[in-house]
Amino acid sequence: YAPWCPACQQIEVTWESFAKESEHLGVTVGKVDVTQEPGLSGRFFVTTLPTIYHANDGVFRRYRGPRTLEDLQGYVSERKWEAVEPVAGWKSPSSIMMHGMAGLFHLSGWIRQIHSYLTGTLGIHVWISYAIFILATLLIGLFLGL
Where is the signal peptide (predicted)? Predict the structure, then answer.
């Protein structure tokens, strides 16, 4: 979820109720703020918010059903998740490819922080910051090419 997301705000009360009932269902329920954990959003290939996953014994399934408390509870208690196709091996959050995707999301956050530092703290014009990143990209490419 993200704090600014209207759909996330709409499901928040239901999700909190589901979390309170989770002990009776024998599951653990959590939520992750993708603005604070961009690596996880990359690792789980989050393209829409909110995104709900069911994980059991290292197998991940994306929940795409209705977002009512009864439907969420039924998904677990009636074992409806067994009928859902697991996330493909290469797209699984535990795969090497998704570890790499998480790394790219962390890198993009780091680049954004550097850009903010250059423009906000040091007062460098935005286009000069862009030029610095272009030059760094060319130099890194040249170095790797050698």
Answer: none
